Amino acid sequence: MKRAVILLSGGLDSTTTLYYALNKGYTCQALIFDYGQRHKRELRSAVAVAKLTKVPYQILKIKFPWKGSSLLDKKMPIPKSRFPVSPFTRLSNIPSTYVPARNTIFLSFALSFAEAIGAQAIFIGANALDYSGYPDCRPDYYAAYQKVIEKGTKAKKIKIVTPLIDLTKAEIIKLGRKLGAPLEMTWSCYQGGSKPCGVCDSCRLRAKGFSLYNKAS
Amino acid sequence: MKRAVILLSGGLDSTTTLYYALNKGYTCQALIFDYGQRHKRELRSAVAVAKLTKVPYQILKIKFPWKGSSLLDKKMPIPKSRFPVSPFTRLSNIPSTYVPARNTIFLSFALSFAEAIGAQAIFIGANALDYSGYPDCRPDYYAAYQKVIEKGTKAKKIKIVTPLIDLTKAEIIKLGRKLGAPLEMTWSCYQGGSKPCGVCDSCRLRAKGFSLYNKAS
């Protein structure tokens, strides 16, 4: 049996990634993080997706007492409209929504979990094309992390799998649709509101993806 | 001002490391982890050392729901007397006290904290000589982790400093004494008792260190 731990945020990318892993024959266990994010709404989506797929999940509560990000600190504004809509968005500056070492923390828990249950893989829906410019979403970061696993664990051979890393948002949507992922259940907006704000990076990247996907199909 | 985050367990090694960092002129902030360790007693030592040095500290509570280690799971026995007393102890097998990805998780939080407060360094008292054989205590693990920082953070240049990595336990004690570290306040035993058990790896390595230090001085 192939086992995997999957980092599930409740967004479009991680949901598609979960369907990808299931489609590849992995028996998955999901980790969901309640880390003080202002868009706590995403947790509801994550749980709904896990329940729909009957994938066992755990919600880990994590505290970032030092904040240092507009995704954690409600006194800081979420940036709006940082990029024009084009097929590819490569942002070179790192926005205030970057949470210091967040993916490194998430991966570390996933790694611990994977090692404890004897999983062979960790799936994460990171994407370095239509993304917010976070350094911990890029391929060379995951290559470096792979070395940490090799050097720092007993299991050594657990693989980090990033199936979306070089896809555009429209391509991710296409893949999700093909795999039957419930994209309408997912949540992307960074703001804490009950409806997507439509102007944060995450909303705009999502909207752009759907717009280009719809044009192409 | 040179700032550092220090991982403080309340043991001999991390206490000596804190004194080393302070001696090097770093303004330190300590992170202490309450992670369900059976030797929770060490937390008291960590807090006492932080208070003595007037280093600000935070206790982070972390859950390992999957356990997978005799340090977390009280139903598993702590191994006893695994090695003969000699000047150098290099254990090749990894004991059940190994906690999957523990140092990776600790470092990730330290990294997040360091990045958020603009610290230049993370100090950790890892030691790969008189140690329990954990892979996440070895130099090549820290070299790999350094790459993760470079690739995955905005700050990029935060250095992991491991001043004890190639010292024997007797040499660590010598360094601690020289720096005025309150070694008598530290706690090493893996068991959850109110007194050190004297037979776990950690007790035996500590006792061996003091014995060889006393002989040499």
CATH topology of chain A: Rossmann fold
CATH architecture descriptor name of chain A: 3-Layer(aba) Sandwich
DSSP strand content of chain A: 5-15%
| Overall structural domain count of chain A | 1
CATH uppermost class of chain A: Alpha Beta
What is the strand arrangement across the widest sheet of chain A? 3-2-1-4-5
Rg over CA atoms of chain A: 16 Å
Class inferred from helices and paired strands of chain A: alpha/beta
Portion in helices of chain A: 25-40%
* Largest binding interface between chains: A-B, 45 and 46 residues
Unreliable runs of chain A: none
Series of secondary-structure elements of chain A, N-terminal to C-terminal: EHEHEHEHEHH
As an assembly, this protein is: homodimer
Mean pLDDT of chain A: 93
Number of helices of chain A: 6
Number of strands of chain A: 5
Largest sheet of chain A: 5 strands, parallel
Mass-distribution shape of chain A? globular
EC number (chains A, B): 6.3.4.20
GO molecular function (chains A, B): ATP binding; ligase activity, forming carbon-nitrogen bonds; zinc ion binding
Protein name (chains A, B): 7-cyano-7-deazaguanine synthase
Organism (chains A, B): candidate division WOR-1 bacterium RIFOXYC12_FULL_54_18
